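tmp note - Riboflavin biosynthesis protein RibD
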Amino acid sequence: MAGPQVNERERAAMSRALRLAARGLGTTSPNPVVGCVVLDARGERAGEGWHRQAGGPHAEVHALREAGGRARGGTALVTLEPCNHTGRTAPCARALVEAGVRRVVYAVADPDPRAEGGAATLRAAGVETAAGLLGEEAERVNAAWLTSVRRGRPHITWKYAATLDGRTAAADGTSRWITSAEARADVHRLRAEADAVLVGSGTARADDPHLAARLPAPAPDAPAPVQPLRVVLDTTATAVRPGARVLDGAAPTLVAVAGDADAGHLEDHPHAKVLRLPRAGGGLDLTALLDALHAREVRSVLLEGGARLAGAFVAARAVDRVVGYLAPALLGAGPQALTDGGISTIADALRLDITDARRIGPDLRITAVPATPLTKEH
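out:
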């Protein structure tokens, strides 16, 4: 979509709205993250806000409250098309009309059939609308929620840490610590932003991971971050045993097992629930897993499992983002970051576009997304 005709103040305001929207990562699910900036009739910033937590006021409401009477005749810059339905809050499109806003510019159209139509409501009330300003940036900020609506499954980020020659451990199996303390702290940020953290039975057996996020203290005006759901794929129900760290109650835990697995030791556990899934390809059916997580309103998953589990998700074309932490070290031998992936020839390679590359302490963090869109329908 071609960008709307805007001035530099509006572009700067939308950029600010995107930064505000990102503050909601980790606290708004299953709702989208949204930011809004209101300019008064002279183009000066009058109010701003972001959606802070599910069930709370939307971004537009916060911004209009701050703007007060200065919103009349002004412009609202919103990262997502204003909603048009009454849920736990009133329609934002109606709030903008009642505030007397003259123009609304939004970055991404709302694909949710329950909420779409906000722009049409605004136009019917005589409010000028424009769409697409900084749309690509807004898509990235809201990727988890948009994926869940468009594809009917959670957005999957595969995270791994490796040496420059792609090894995740040494030949003797030692792996602590390949990357730096700074990189590991950044992983906790990813966990805090995700609805769920997922590992397989191999990682559960080898590392006994805790998987909870070390959450930063919230800002005075921000809600407390929410611990992600810890998910372990344990087909035979033999990897997560009594005393495992994921059963400590620090965060909710879901153990996915095969329908015929003996999971009696987990069935009545006070801090874990069992999810029974059909078998597929020597493990569990990933489509059924993603369906079950989506039904639980999990909108984003951070995949932290080993090479085999990552390969299964790549083979299923269910990886929406890759975040690789590369340490300036060489091992020459040892496990690789990815196994199989269903790719046997260079023509089948999953090509990626790098969206970000930066130093994290001594390490390099590379973020990439598939170069061509994955199948739209799940």
